[in-house]
Design goal:
Elements (H helix, E strand, L loop, with lengths): L1 H5 L2 H10 L4 H8 L7 H18 L13 H9 L6 H27 L6 H9 L4 H10 L12 H25 L14 E3 L2 E7 L8 E6 L5 E6 L3 H30 L2 H27 L5 E2 L3 E7 L2 H6 L8 E6 L2 E7 L6 H16 L11 E2 L4 E5 L12 H12 L7 E5 L8 H17 L3 E5 L14 E9 L6 E7 L7 H7 L4 H10 L2 H73 L5 H22 L11 H7 L5 E4 L4 E5 L8 E6 L2 E6 L3 E2 L8 H8 L11 E4 L5 H17 L4 E5 L6 H12 L3 E6 L9 E6 L2
Parallel strand pairs: 5-9, 8-12, 8-13, 10-11, 11-12, 20-21
Antiparallel strand pairs: 1-2, 2-4, 3-4, 6-7, 13-14, 15-16, 15-19, 16-17, 17-18, 21-23, 22-23
C-alpha cells in the first residue's frame, strides 16, 4: 500500500469515494484491487459504460439507506418487532428502490434495443417496493408517527380516548369554577401527573375535599390531587392508554411479520442497490476525468494522450498537457530523462495509474484507442522507502526494490522506477543501473524508468529493448513544456536551471570549467541532439495541429450526423402524431354501419406505425458539448453547475449573452461566466424525492442525511463539548438519531463518548455501528421523543 500511495493511487480512491452515496460502498471502493483477467476488466468497463447511460439521464440515484439496512434487516431475521424508527429506515429503503427502478425504467424505454446485461441484472434484482411501502404508509405517517386509523380498533380507541379526555376536562372545569373551591386551589387550571388529570391544591388544604394525592411541588406549596369524582374517568383513561399501546404493538407485530416474508427480496434488492452505487460512483469519476475504455494486448503499451488523473481533477482538464507513450516487443523499456521539475515523475505516474486503473477495470485518462497489456503486477519504486526498523537506508531500500523487480519475467509485469540508482556515486550508480536495466530487458518486462545519470542516456543499441525518451523544454526560457519526446534522451539542465533561478555567473562559469572532458563531450553531444529534437518537435507540432484540425472536422460532421438523426426522429414522431390525429378524426366521422369495420382497420395502422419509428430511432449517447446552444440545452436556467474559476457550485440564472457568458448565482454572488468554464456539478444532491413525486403519487418525506459528529483527533474535553452542541441542535431540529464517529485509537475517546451518552437526558439509547459500516469505531445515539 505504501508503494501505491507513492503512485497517488490513494488520492484517486479518495476522489472515487466522494461519488458514492453510502458508507458501505465507500468501504468497498476503498478496497478496489486488480482483477484476475482481462475479460473481467472488459466486463467492468461495460458495466461502467451502462452506469454512465444512467448518469446521462441527468439524475444520480442515491442509496443512503444502505447504511441503515443492517440494523432493521437483522431485527427482521430475528423475528423482532420493528419500531417506528426502524420502519422509517425501511420506508427510505423502499423509496430509494422505487426511485432507482423508475430511472432504470426510463432508460429501458429510451434504449430498449440497446439494453445492456448489467442494467437488466440490476432491474431483475430490484423488488417491487411499492407493496411493503404501502403497508408501512397504511400504519405510519412519513414523519414516523402511528396513524390513528391504522386499524378500526385503534381508531375507536382514540375516539373514545378523545371523548374521555373531554369529559374529564369538563368535570374538572366545573369543580374549579365552584365558588367554594377558590380558597383551596393554588391556580384555576387543571393538569396531569403520572398520566392522571389532577387539580393544583394549596399546601395544607388537601383535606378540604376527598381525593388522591399524586405529587407535590418542590416548595411543598402546591399539592396535586385527583378529586374522587373523576377517579373512574381517570381509571378508564389509563386503561385506554394501555389498550392503545397494546393495539399499536399488535399492529407493529403484524407489519413486522409481513416484512419478514419479504426478507429474500430485501436481500436481493440490497445487493442491487450496492452494485448500482458502486458502478455509478465509478461512472461519475470517469465522467469527471473524461476517461476512456482501453483495449488489452499482450505485446504493446500504447497510451494516446495520457494525462495524470489528479491534474485533470484539479485543473478541470484545462491546460493539462497530454502525451503519447508507445512501448512494444522490441522496445519494452522507456528510459526517461530531462530537466528537473520537467514532468518525468508525473508522466511515470500517469502511465502507472493508467495501467493500474485498467487492471482494476476502471476507464483510464487517455484516448479510447489506447492499448495496454493486462498487468498481473506493477512493481513501484517511487519515493523514499527507507526503514529504520529494517535498518535500510534510502539507497538500500531502493536497491531492494530493484532486486525484487529483477525476478519478474514476462509481458504481464510493469516496472515503474523513479531516479534509478540516483542517490549514490554517479559512476557506480550508472553501472549498477545499466546492469539492472539489461536484466529487465532480458526478462521481457515492460518498464518506465527515470534518471539523471548521464552515462545511462547513451550506449543503448538497437535490439537492446531500451528506448530513450525525454521531456521537452523551451530553449529560450529554459522552462519545461511537459511534452514527451520519444527516442531522444534529455538533458538534466542543472546549469541552465541554476542560471534561471539566479545563481551568480562566476559560479556557473567555474562549474563549466570543472566538467570532465567526457562530460563536456557528452554536453556537446546532447546539445546537438537537442537541436535535432527541436526540429523534430516543430514538425511534430505541425502534424499534431493538422491532426487536431482533422479531428475537429470529423467531430463536427459526427455532430451534424447526430443532429440529423435526432431531427429525423423528431420529424417522424411529428408525422406519426399528425397521422394519428387524422386517423382519430376519420374514426369519429365514420358512419354508424361502418364504424367497427373501419375502426379495426385504422387501429391496425396506428399499431404498426410506431413500430417503424422505433426501429429507426438510435440511442442517444452523451457527447462533449461543442457550443453555447448545446450547453443551454444541457443546462437550462435553474441547473446546478461547477464554476472552475472559483472552485464552487452555482445555479444558472438565464441565457447566454452575445459573448457566450451565462449569469450564474454562487454563494449570493451573481457572476457572468463563459459557458466553456462551466462544468457538471461536483457535489451530488439526492434526487429521490423529485423522482418519486414525478412518477407516482406517493407522499415523500426524506430527512436530510443523518447528523454526523466526527470527533476523531480531538481531546476528550473538545469531543464532549462538540457532542453536546450537536445533540442540542439535533433535539431542536426534531431529529431521531445522531451518528458519532470516534474511531478506535486507545479507546479513551470512545469510552468518554459512550459514558456521556449514557448520562445524557437527550439520549434514549446508544449502540455500536454494524461491522459493515464502521463497526465499533462509530456509535449511533437514538434520541428521546
Amino acid at each position: 500500500m505504501h508503494a501505491l500511495k507513492n503512485l497517488d493511487w490513494l488520492e484517486i480512491l479518495a476522489q472515487l469515494e466522494r461519488f458514492a452515496t453510502s458508507d458501505v460502498v465507500r468501504a468497498r471502493l476503498r478496497e478496489i484491487k486488480p482483477l484476475q483477467s482481462p475479460e473481467q476488466a472488459v466486463q467492468s468497463f461495460n458495466e461502467i459504460s451502462e452506469a454512465q447511460s444512467i448518469l446521462n439521464s441527468g439524475e444520480r440515484p442515491f442509496m443512503e439507506s444502505l447504511d441503515l439496512y443492517p440494523n432493521w434487516y437483522q431485527r427482521l431475521k430475528r423475528n423482532a418487532v420493528l419500531q417506528t424508527l426502524d420502519l422509517k429506515d425501511v420506508r427510505r429503503f423502499c423509496l430509494e428502490t422505487i426511485a432507482l427502478s423508475e430511472i432504470i425504467g426510463a432508460e429501458i424505454s429510451n434504449n430498449a434495443s440497446h439494453l445492456g446485461p448489467w442494467i437488466s441484472k440490476l432491474k431483475d434484482g430490484l423488488m417491487d417496493a411499492s407493496h411493503p411501502l404501502s403497508a408501512i404508509d397504511h400504519v405510519m405517517t412519513p414523519n414516523g408517527e402511528i396513524r390513528n386509523d391504522a386499524s378500526e380498533s385503534l381508531y375507536n380507541l382514540y375516539r373514545e380516548q378523545s371523548s374521555q379526555i373531554k369529559n374529564l376536562q369538563t368535570t374538572l372545569d366545573r369543580i374549579v369554577k365552584k365558588y367554594d373551591m377558590e380558597a383551596i386551589l393554588q391556580e384555576r387550571f387543571v393538569t396531569t401527573r403520572e398520566g392522571r388529570w389532577v387539580l393544583p391544591v394549596k399546601g395544607g388544604m388537601q383535606h378540604a375535599f376527598d381525593g388522591i394525592i399524586h405529587a407535590s411541588s418542590q416548595s411543598k406549596q402546591t399539592v396535586f390531587m385527583e378529586p374522587e369524582e373523576v377517579i373512574p374517568l381517570n381509571n378508564r383513561l389509563r386503561q385506554l392508554d394501555v389498550e392503545i399501546e397494546q393495539e399499536i404493538e399488535r399492529i407493529l407485530t403484524s407489519l413486522s411479520e409481513y416484512l419478514t416474508t419479504q426478507l429474500s427480496q430485501f436481500e436481493s434488492t440490497q445487493e442491487a442497490l450496492a452494485a448500482a452505487d458502486y458502478r455509478l460512483a465509478q461512472a461519475k469519476l470517469s465522467e469527471q476525468l473524461e476517461a476512456s475504455v482501453c483495449r488489452f494486448s499482450n505485446h504493446k503499451l500504447h497510451l494516446i494522450d495520457v494525462r495524470h488523473p489528479l491534474l485533470v481533477l484539479k485543473n478541470e482538464n484545462e491546460n493539462v498537457v497530454s502525451n503519447t507513450v508507445m512501448l512494444q516487443d522490441k522496445e519494452r523499456i522507456l528510459l526517461l530523462s530531462g530537466p528537473n521539475a520537467g514532468g518525468k515523475t508525473v508522466l511515470l505516474k500517469a502511465v502507472g495509474l493508467a495501467s493500474y486503473m485498467a487492471s482494476c477495470g476502471l476507464p483510464i485518462c487517455a484516448a479510447s484507442e489506447s492499448t495496454l497489456p493486462f498487468f498481473k503486477s506493477i512493481s513501484i519504486g517511487i519515493g523514499d522507502s527507507q526503514s529504520v526498523d529494517e535498518a535500510l537506508s534510502t539507497f538500500a531500500a531502493h536497491i531492494k526494490i530493484l532486486d525484487k523487480a529483477s525476478q519478474l519475467r514476462g509481458h504481464d509485469y510493469l516496472l515503474l522506477i523513479d531516479e534509478i540508482c540516483g542517490s549514490t556515486d554517479p559512476e557506480e550508480g550508472s553501472a549498477l543501473a545499466r546492469s539492472f536495466i539489461e536484466k529487465y530487458a532480458s526478462n521481457q518486462v515492460f518498464a518506465v524508468i527515470t534518471s539523471h545519470l548521464g552515462p545511462l542516456k547513451v550506449g543503448w543499441k538497437e535490439g537492446s529493448g531500451v528506448i530513450n525518451g525525454s521531456l521537452e523544454y523551451n530553449t529560450e526560457s529554459g522552462l519545461p513544456t511537459y511534452k514527451f519526446f520519444m527516442g531522444v534522451p534529455g538533458r538534466s539542465l542543472a546549469l541552465l536551471t541554476a542560471r534561471r533561478v539566479g545563481v551568480d555567473e562566476t559560479i556557473l562559469d567555474r562549474a563549466l570549467e570543472l566538467l570532465s572532458p567526457e562530460a563536456k563531450l557528452e554536453h556537446n553531444y546532447l546539445r546537438n541532439i537537442e537541436s535535432l529534437k527541436d526540429d523534430l518537435q516543430r514538425r511534430q507540432n505541425d502534424l499534431e495541429n493538422e491532426s487536431r484540425a482533422a479531428r475537429e472536422i470529423k467531430r463536427k460532421y459526427q455532430s451534424l450526423i447526430q443532429n440529423f438523426r435526432i431531427e429525423k426522429d423528431q420529424w417522424l414522431e411529428r408525422v406519426v402524431k399528425k397521422a394519428e390525429r387524422k386517423i382519430d378524426a376519420l374514426i369519429d366521422q365514420s358512419q354508424a354501419d361502418q364504424v367497427f369495420k373501419r375502426h379495426e382497420k385504422l387501429s391496425q395502422i396506428k399499431f404498426e406505425m410506431p413500430e417503424i419509428v422505433k426501429a429507426s430511432s438510435l440511442p442517444q449517447f452523451k457527447r462533449k458539448i461543442e457550443n453555447v446552444e448545446e450547453f443551454e440545452k444541457a443546462y437550462p436556467p435553474g441547473s446546478m453547475v461547477h464554476i472552475a474559476s472559483v472552485g464552487q457550485e452555482g445555479i444558472i440564472q438565464g441565457k447566454a449573452n452575445t459573448k457566450g457568458e451565462i449569469p450564474v448565482l454562487s454563494n449570493s454572488m451573481r457572476l457572468m461566466i463563459h459557458w466553456g468554464s462551466l462544468k457538471a456539478p461536483h457535489n451530488l444532491s439526492n434526487p429521490t424525492s423529485q423522482i418519486i413525486r414525478r412518477h407516482s403519487h406517493i407522499s415523500v418525506s426524506l430527512q436530510d442525511a443523518e447528523r454526523v459528529v466526527d470527533v476523531r483527533g480531538m481531546r476528550v474535553e473538545e469531543a464532549i463539548e462538540q457532542l453536546e452542541v450537536q445533540l442540542d441542535a439535533a433535539v431542536l431540529a426534531g431529529e431521531d438519531r445522531v451518528k458519532i464517529v470516534h474511531g478506535h485509537g486507545t479507546e479513551a475517546l470512545k469510552k468518554a463518548v459512550r459514558s456521556y451518552l449514557s448520562r445524557s437526558h437527550y439520549v434514549k439509547k446508544w449502540k455500536a455501528s454494524p461491522q459493515e459500516i464502521g463497526g465499533d469505531g462509530i456509535t449511533w445515539a437514538e434520541l428521546k421523543d
